[in-house]
Structure formats: structure tokens, C-alpha cells
Amino acid sequence: MLRVLGKPTSINVRKVLWTCAVLDLPVTPEPWGSGHQSCGEPEFMALNPNAMVPVLVEDGVALWESNTICRYLAARHQRSDLLPASPMARAQVEKWMDWQIAELNNAWRYAFMGLVRESPLHLDRAAIDTSAAAWNRHMAILERQLAITGAYVAGQDFTLADIVLGLSTNRWLSTPMARPTLPAVAAWYQRLGQHAGFAEHCDNGVP
């Protein structure tokens, strides 16, 4: 049985849980993080010295970083549909997964923390507007990609890139701010509803 440590409302924990649902893997979730057991506890720090969720534990071995966990699970269960075996096809999926972490996340962080989390450290209106504009610009990049493929992020097939970016899109749609109309993104997001775990771990009312 896989253990997934992290609060179930965390966007990064939900990546892992959604991947497990697609793979039909039984999981034992353990709530850690804000409102639950502290990630600063020695027990947790021994698994992830960064004190961040999620952490996957399998056969006594701990793995952290959400996108890495998703890649591990797909490879472990030989799901080349989610993470292709061909180096170039795999790189196309991983490219968008890395973009989600490095570019898209950095764009939305201030706006989301201010508008949704109402963090006292993220209430500067100009900074919120700048972040929201950057977020929309990055979502327009995703729009152009989806208009090209006409299906999923990395091509004609549903992959791990769709899981991680589907959760980012859910957050974008849930944040109270002005957004451009992106028809390819809207059609793709509806298409994601055909896949196991979408309703429970992505489109579940949690931003």
C-alpha cells in the first residue's frame, strides 16, 4: 500500500492522488500540513527535509517533489501512455510538467495568495495585478498549444502533463480575477472530465 503524506486540499498532493486514481492504485492518505500534523515534526522531516508535502512512501522509501512522484508512479507501473518510453515523446510531456512548476506556478503565486488565501503578506494591489496579468499570459501559452494539438497538452493522448496542468487550470478558473476567454483551454478542461479521478481530485471545488 502506498502512503501519501499531505493535506488532501494541497494542489501538489492532488496531483499525486489524481495520478494514483488514473493508475487505479490503492492509497493510504495521511493528512500533514496546515490544519493537520505539522510538517516540522521530526517524523516528517526525516522523510522530507524541506518540510513540504506531498511525500510518497513505498516499501519504506520516501520520495518527494510532486511531479517527480507522478513520473515515478507512471514509470513504476509501465504506463507509457502517461509517460512515453520514447525519449522525445517523453521529453514533450516532461517539458510541460517542468513549465508548470518553473513558469506557470511563479506567475500565479502572488495573485493566488492574495485573492484566495488572503495572505497578509500578499495584499499589495499592484503586485496582485502584475501576477494576475502574468498568469493570464502564461495560460494563453497553454491555449495556443491546445489549439495546435486539438486534444491534450502533449498531443493526442492524455498524459501526466494534463494532470499537473489540469490542476493549475482549476486554480486559474477558481480565482476571483479577470480572465480572458480561452476556448481551447475550456474544451480541454471539459475533456479531462472523462478521466478517472478528475471530479474527486481536480474539479472538486478546491482551488
UniProtKB/TrEMBL annotation:
Signal peptide from the UniProt entry: none
GO molecular function term, any single one: transferase activity
Annotated GST N-terminal domain residues: 1-81
Keyword set includes Transferase: yes
Entry-linked InterPro entries: Glutathione-S-Trfase_C-like (IPR010987), Glutathione-S-Trfase_C_sf (IPR036282), Glutathione_S-Trfase (IPR040079), Glutathione_S-Trfase_N (IPR004045), GST_C (IPR004046), Thioredoxin-like_sf (IPR036249)
CDD domains named in the record: GST_C_2, GST_N_2
Pfam families: GST_C, GST_N_3
Annotated family: Belongs to the GST superfamily.
Name by which UniProt lists this protein: Glutathione S-transferase
Species annotation: Archangium gephyra
Phylogenetic lineage: Bacteria, Pseudomonadati, Myxococcota, Myxococcia, Myxococcales
